[in-house]
């Protein structure tokens, strides 16, 4: 079973996800999963922390896949508990394909994604009528200029969506520069939410222009969700919404 | 309390969201909320179905806000239960601001968004290493050419993200045309997931070119989540992932 654990607060695990974890023989976790639920498990449950699999040059993802397949083939009820949603930068499909190719059936239980819940828990809506008609969620892992990058950052900036960045906090200045160069205003608000869903959650606010001039906000550290766009202004406090008459329906 | 109810399956409500609903004096719902949980409520709980508030030319959203404020000011524990996440096209911030301006404090409990979970439940990951570096979620309510539209669809198409459309199924051909005209390939797979998270969930597959030529897939009906991009091919069946060597970590 592939379970999305939400942003970190075990209360943001889904009802079905929680039931699956508590019924498992083996729970395979990494550092972004809602680890507090592990304390509720029976001592007979095997917990495999795949964050401890050494990150060398040889395929540790394949080792994670092997753990899942081996335990399932041994007749165990295996839950792979991931942070957020398993299909948002979670390599969920890779693990699912590896299991199915080995003859192991997989059920998917979606989760609360930090890309939406992180901002939401800091009072930032990723969409708002009259302000923005959608949002884009992008991995900041490979920023502009990185040879692995496949995003057209200028086009993305010009699409007029809220931009939500997961991971890659050190790429924020380069991304802010690309977005600014593509024509977004220097005053565009930016909010960085750290440790979303955990007791240590906190956020920082800035603007595109400030980040290009001065670098990332002081104190920014991973894991963080960064919101670029007018809605990020809600992180500074409530905004009175004066909707146009045609939107008051 | 502003609670995201997830895509429809009550098992995809969060643990904390479920607790909040079951502890409420008043539950304010609309048709996209996970209505099955209402059967578990004590008969003394007031359930207000705001989908029944007539949609006339005079501000029904204000009437919904009034219901929330009135009940809270009367000392009731009010839960506003919404489908998906309250801040993804949910008008959640409007209701929150209305409450706070009336002196009513609001706690937000994020939910599983249909934009990610709808595809996920149909086996479609919105991101996948080596295929796509992010996804954009856009309301199809105001498509290209609509005077309310604020999205630059050509720029969005060129950004190289998975495109997820919520609402506005009747705008799909116009959106497909805009995406195709912006240079995306005619063979780009499209998947439409209907009634995500409900027993009636089902999906249709097509391509950008087919939709531009023949219109939306036969049988498409609301509510639906539409995915445009290479990952949509997973809706036709499992794809063997042959990751480049540099991505096998």
The ordered H/E elements of chain A are: EHEEHEHEHEHEHEEHE
Low-confidence parts of chain A: none
Provide the β-strand percentage band of chain A: 15-25%
List the quaternary state of the chains: homodimer
Query: Which structural class best describes the helix and strand composition of chain A?
Result: alpha/beta
Instruction: Describe the largest sheet of chain A.
Output: 5 strands, parallel
Overall radius of gyration of chain A = 20 Å
Which protein chains are joined by the largest interface, and how many residues does each one contribute?
A-B, 79 and 79 residues
Give a verbal description of the structure.
The structure is a homodimer of 249-residue chains. In chain A, 25% of the residues lie in helices and 18% in strands. Chain A has 249 residues and is of the alpha/beta class. In chain A, the strands form two sheets. In chain A, strands 3-2-4-1-5 form a five-stranded parallel β-sheet, sandwiched between helices. Chain A has a five-stranded mixed β-sheet with strand order 6-7-10-8-9. Chain A is elongated, with a radius of gyration of 20 Å. The termini of chain A are far apart. Strand 6 of chain A pairs antiparallel with strand 6 of chain B.
């Amino acid at each position: 079973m592939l379970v999305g654990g939400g942003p970190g607060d075990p209360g943001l695990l889904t009802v079905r996800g929680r039931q699956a974890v508590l019924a498992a023989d083996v729970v395979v976790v990494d550092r972004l999963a809602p680890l507090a639920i592990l304390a509720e498990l029976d001592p007979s449950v095997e917990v495999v922390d795949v964050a401890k699999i050494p990150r060398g040059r040889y395929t540790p993802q394949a080792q994670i896949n092997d753990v899942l397949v081996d335990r399932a083939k041994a007749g165990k009820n295996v839950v792979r508990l991931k942070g957020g949603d398993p299909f948002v930068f979670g390599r969920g499909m890779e693990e699912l394909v590896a299991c199915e190719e080995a003859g192991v059936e997989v059920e998917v239980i979606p989760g609360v994604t930090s890309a939406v819940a992180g901002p939401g828990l800091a009072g930032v809506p990723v969409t708002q009528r009259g302000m923005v008609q959608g949002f884009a969620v992008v991995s900041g892992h490979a920023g502009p200029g990185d040879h692995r990058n496949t995003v057209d950052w200028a086009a993305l900036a010009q699409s007029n969506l809220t931009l939500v960045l997961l991971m890659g906090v050190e790429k924020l200045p380069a991304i802010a520069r690309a977005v600014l160069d593509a024509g977004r205003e220097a005053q565009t608000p930016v909010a960085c939410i750290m440790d979303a869903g955990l007791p240590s959650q906190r956020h920082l606010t800035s603007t595109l222009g400030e980040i290009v001039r001065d670098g990332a906000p002081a104190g920014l550290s991973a894991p963080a969700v960064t919101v670029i766009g007018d809605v990020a202004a809600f992180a500074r406090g409530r905004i009175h919404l004066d909707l146009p008459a045609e939107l008051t329906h």
